[in-house]
Ribonuclease BN (tRNA processing enzyme)
Amino acid sequence: MKLTVLGCSGSVPGPDSPASSYLVSADGFQLVLDLGSGALGALQRHLSVPEIGAIGLSHLHPDHCMDLCGLYVSAKYSPASPFPRIPVFGPPGTAARMALAYDLPEDPGMEEELEFHVWQEIQQIGPFTVRTISAVHPVPAYSIRVEHGNKALVFTGDTGPNDALIEFARGADLLLSEAALKDDDPNNPVDLHLTPADAGEHAKRAGVKRLVITHVPPWFNRLVQAEGARRTFPGEVLVATPNAVFEI
């Protein structure tokens, strides 16, 4: 597997990065995890829209899904269209939410261009076995585990600390973890995001091989957030940056 970072800015697009979006590739298949604000442009530096094998949305906050509107326009009006509908996996209500976002009638909404599916605990997407669990967040949200052969990538999505995530990430080759809050800030909201220390502690308890820190808002420093994770995770801690590639 290969993981390419398309967007890693947390909560909003930043000056140097779109919001959440990651490209997972294997055996010629392209799986996009999240397509947040600004990510569609970055995606097209790596592949064309018809080459997208499937999209998985961790949840329906705009910084994780809103460029699906641009994708719909591209799929509908591109000179290359029509092409086969792109499968989109997400929380219940994704099709209706995206139709509303583009001011479309719910029927057909975007269904003629995109093929919507609700996440299950386990599904086969191209060559990947993809598992999900519910995350701790104010809206329905998922952490996602992508397996190929004997390798595993786990994406936390947006989540507060939780023991279920630790078990879910057990033994993963790479944990792509958000770290959107500051360590030791008494004003941190509960059940919303992870701190760097949380990310490192979860990685340590799960026994993952590598930790990649992502979803850092532009008002925080990625390198500082990664350094915080190193205080609780003894393994390799890396930082997601636009166009970074991680072999798994």
About this structure: The chain has a mean pLDDT of 97. The chain has one domain: 2-247.
